[in-house]
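User: structure tokens for this one?
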Amino acid sequence: MDSALWHKWWDGAWHGWESLGGIITTAPTVCSWASGRLDIFARGTNNSLFHKWWDGSWHNWEDLNAQVFGNPGAVSWGPNRIDIFFPGQNNHMMRGGMDNGVAWKILVGY
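Assistant:
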């Protein structure tokens, strides 16, 4: 009800809910490109795509400066690689991502 992202995890036993903060306005999407790594994406109140990740500890939300007009989706097809798909302005399908540690960027609109 606070519009934050909430997380619960299993490592042989269930742990209690924890708030990961933020104010998100879409369902989050999550993927992993390596063992011990989680990347989460969701739209914020400014309609921009936000990213939060776990690599042994949680990192703060970062604004990826991409206008999102619906739910994002994310997939990893190999180590250090994530592709993000989301509806952009004028219903164009947008794709962004990271490859081999290169910074996040919007790659193309369809």
